[in-house]
Amino acid sequence: MHSLRDLEIVGAIPFRLVLAAVLGGVIGLEREIRRKSAGLRTNMFICIGSALFTILSDQLASKYGVGDHTRIAAQIISGIGFLGAGAIIRERGTVVGLTTAATIFSVASIGMAVGGGLYVVAIFACLLILILLVVVGWLENFFSLKTRRMVFRVTTPSLEATVSSTNAAFAEAEISVQHFQVLHVGTNFLLEFEADVSVHQQRRLTEKITPLGTKFEIVAREYVAA
């Protein structure tokens, strides 16, 4: 016969899973807006899964009367570690995906807190992580603390003059061009300059390079088609 405590916990399980989905979704939405690899659905699934495994860890031990109530939950940490490692890649001498991996790790901890019934802790942690992602990210951009690999594309009919002026713009901004190529497109030339720039540097270069060609665009390196 089930005890009153068991019935209360079973009745609370759907609420816990829904709360985990909501909290994971809040962080996932911010990641989705920033077009990160682990977006809305991924963070929701991670949070729900962590919550459910935490619940199962306790419920199964209680049901059969043997085993450690935290045994399954303890394996979540190592499992999430493998998932986070998959988000970290090395590209052109730099490591990307560390923030995404750390977010995955943190979202899993929120799910575990919800699964353990620590609702206030889970909600506070979710808000704190969201503030750090948004506010610290804004501060990094405002003070030019973080650079990003960007590709500057200029379409122009005048090759030599545009190359000279564009190189001068990069030199004036003290930015090193990591990769450069010229493609012939019809009667025009397509120039591609690849460099690590901050938000402020990107704006300055845009102002200087835009007038040099008939078409100008900037794309993030991770979204450039191979």
Layout of secondary structure:
Layout: H1 4-33, H2 40-64, H3 71-87, E1 89-91, E2 94-96, H4 98-115, H5 119-142, E3 148-156, H6 159-172, E4 177-185, E5 188-197, H7 199-209, E6 215-220
Antiparallel strand pairs: 1-2, 3-5, 3-6, 4-5
Helix pairs in contact: 1-2, 1-4, 1-5, 2-3, 2-4, 3-4, 4-5
Protein model, in words:
With 226 residues, the protein is of the alpha+beta class. The chain folds into two domains: 4-142, no CATH class; 148-223, ACT domain (Alpha-Beta Plaits, 2-Layer Sandwich), CATH 3.30.70.260. The protein is built from seven helices and six strands, in the order αααββααβαββαβ. It has helices at 4-33, 40-64, 71-87, 98-115, 119-142, 159-172, 199-209, and strands spanning 89-91, 94-96, 148-156, 177-185, 188-197, 215-220. The strands form two sheets. It has a four-stranded antiparallel sheet with strand order 4-5-3-6. A two-stranded antiparallel sheet has the order 1-2. The longest helix has 30 residues, at 4-33. The protein is elongated. The mean pLDDT is 85.
Summarize the amount of helix as a percent range. 55-70%
Strand content: 15-25%
What form results from the Cα inertia axes?
elongated
Low-confidence stretches: none
Structural class: alpha+beta
Number of domains: 2
Mean pLDDT: 85
The termini sit apart by 62 Å
* Tally of alpha and pi helices: 7
- The sequence of SSEs as H and E is HHHEEHHEHEEHE
Spatial strand arrangement across the major sheet: 4-5-3-6
Tally the beta strands: 6
Radius of gyration: 25 Å
Q: What profile does the largest beta sheet have?
A: 4 strands, antiparallel
